[in-house]
Amino acid sequence: MSESVNADPAELAKFSELAHRWWDPESEFRPLHQINPLRLDWIDGLADLSSKRVLDVGCGGGILSDSMARKGATVTGIDLSTKALRVARLHALEVQTANLDFREVSVEALAAEQPESFDVVTCMEMLEHVPDPASVVQSCSRLVKPGGWVFFSTINRNAKAFMLAIVGAEYILNMLPRGTHEYAKLIRPSELAASCRAAGLDVMHTCGLEHNPLTRRYWLGNDTSVNYMFATRRAS
């Protein structure tokens, strides 16, 4: 892999090994299936996905991409995991989702190729897996049209997030494969906000994604101490 590509080969290998299980709602990807309706409704409520051109950065097996296309958007999902994209394409064919395509390309390369091309850009659960998250934020800003929306979700870096998102989720409850997240790569909201400002994105809304491990219920709230989302807009 070229050194200029903003990706960690170990991270790509990690998700590639699990790619065939992406669409199994009882697999390691169960949390993604559970939170997807919450994320989708939050995004759609702010950006109104119908008839929009949408880019899903780090789309993996295409769970969010597929659901946004079903809201009436024309969606392109990009990822650097060949196996995950193969699964995403196969699923789209099986369920015959319209207006949905996938490409194996980095967000930086696509930003150079198609600047200001999308009404909405989503980058969910990806920033904590790349060597240079600020570069991803900058590229997302380049890709969205002036006035367009860019959405991010990631995990806070603090003791509570370490205990719940890593120790609890990966080692005690086995909700995620062990080693899914590295504490040092987690991102504080203040750090993400600084990256957004530097990229010309205004943070319009923040939202916490909360979870009760006993009931396995997820909901949106104001607590951003563990999982959180940003809704940003590029200046017109």
Question: Could you outline the blueprint of secondary structure elements for this entry?
Answer:
Layout: H1 9-17, H2 30-47, E1 53-57, H3 63-70, E2 74-79, H4 82-95, E3 100-104, H5 107-113, E4 118-124, H6 133-143, E5 144-155, H7 159-172, H8 189-198, E6 201-212, E7 217-221, E8 227-234
Parallel strand pairs: 1-2, 1-4, 2-3, 4-5
Antiparallel strand pairs: 5-8, 6-7, 6-8
Question: Which key terms come to mind for this protein?
Answer:
single chain; alpha/beta; globular; eight-stranded mixed beta sheet; Rossmann fold; 8 helices; 236 residues
The total count of helices amounts to: 8
Query: What is the number of domains?
Result: 1
- Our measurement of the CA-to-CA distance between the termini, rounded to an integer number of angstroms, reads 36 Å
- Please report which band the strand proportion falls in: under 5%, 5-15%, 15-25%, 25-35%, 35-45% or over 45%: 25-35%
